[in-house]
TrEMBL record:
Residue numbers annotated as active site: 51 (proton acceptor), 82 (proton acceptor), 203 (proton donor)
Catalytic activity: 3-amino-2-oxopropyl phosphate + 1-deoxy-D-xylulose 5-phosphate = pyridoxine 5'-phosphate + phosphate + 2 H2O + H(+)
Coiled coil spans: none
GO function terms (MF aspect): pyridoxine 5'-phosphate synthase activity
SUPFAM superfamilies documented for this protein: Pyridoxine 5'-phosphate synthase
GO biological process: pyridoxine biosynthetic process
Domain of life of the organism encoding this protein: Bacteria
Family: Belongs to the PNP synthase family.
Keywords from the UniProt entry: Cytoplasm, Pyridoxine biosynthesis, Transferase
Organism: Xylophilus rhododendri
HAMAP family, alphabetized: PdxJ
Transition state stabilizer, annotated site positions: 163
Protein name stated in the entry: Pyridoxine 5'-phosphate synthase
Length: 254
């Protein structure tokens, strides 16, 4: 892993949702999710992320099991399973015990993830499921909007980390608003760190917006990137794409 400006290693976790999305449009089994994972890991990615939504629009139950089996051969690689713990996520966690569970408050028919957890509304129902994951040896990351004032509540329910929902920053990248967003994300990350939690980040990150984000937002331990990275891989191939994202992470530490 490469150190960013905050002298902490930032892991690249590749979200394979969109490989599965293309695969699902024919009954041919290609593009292969496990082959994509293998090529990304061989190129240096440090993690694999999937978001097995209840409607199986992309990642299916079998994909999650196939990846769990594949990653037995990659003991240093982290497996991050995302989802709503009040829908289908906990069954995967109980059976497969991935390195990390990322709790995301999506409804079943949601187009894509677009917001984080709300406190205090969500606190009491989250607390026991966070504790259960941790009792199984699974780290818990809560998908959160970049709101510094919400970080103490995330810590209070037991979260190990927060994943900052980065779409608002990504949408502002390249505009005068970007600096405002970066300040907001840096403050939210620092608030999480001050509470003793780790900081992850994801959603709409790409090769262009990743370096300025990591230069400004302190101690990001993991970026999970899927949509833009897989789009890049359609043009460049998995190997060159992963290397370009690792270079973007390294440039933040320059
Ligand atoms: C939680 C998040 O922001 C993404 O990881 C999510 O997995 C995107 O889901 P789709 O790939 O279904 O848009
Ligand atoms: N948690 C974010 C993720 O896994 C991938 O999000 P995106 O890069 O597909 O937007």
């Amino acid at each position: 892993m490469t150190e960013n400006a905050s002298s902490i290693a930032t892991a690249l976790s590749v979200n394979l949702n969109k490989v599965a999305l293309v695969r699902n449009t024919r009954h041919l089994g290609i593009p292969s999710v496990t082959r994509a994972a293998t090529l990304c890991l061989e190129a240096g990615a440090q993690g694999i992320t999937v978001h097995p939504r209840p409607d199986e629009r992309h990642i299916r139950q079998q994909d999650v099991h196939d990846l769990a089996e594949l990653l037995l051969k990659w003991p240093r690689v982290e497996f991050n399973i995302e989802g709503n713990p009040f829908q289908n996520l906990m069954a995967f966690i109980r059976e497969l015990r991935p390195n990390q569970a990322t709790f995301v408050p999506d409804s079943e028919d949601q187009f894509t993830s677009d917001h984080g957890w709300r406190f205090p509304q969500d606190a009491e129902r989250l607390r026991p499921l966070i504790a259960e994951c941790q009792s199984l040896g699974v780290r818990v990351s809560l998908f959160m909007d970049a709101d510094a004032s919400a970080m103490a509540a995330a810590k209070a329910v037991g979260a190990d980390r927060v994943e900052l929902y980065t779409e608002p920053y990504a949408a502002a990248h390249g505009t005068p608003e970007a600096e405002v967003q970066l300040k907001r994300f840096a403050e939210a990350a620092q608030a999480a760190l001050d509470c003793g939690m780790g900081v992850n980040a994801g959603h709409d990150l790409n090769r262009d917006n990743l370096t300025p984000f990591l230069r400004t937002v302190p101690q990001v331990r993991e970026v999970s990137i899927g949509h833009a990275l897989i789009a890049d891989a359609l043009e460049l191939g998995y190997t060159e794409t992963i290397k370009s994202y690792l270079r973007a992470i390294e440039a933040a530490g320059a």
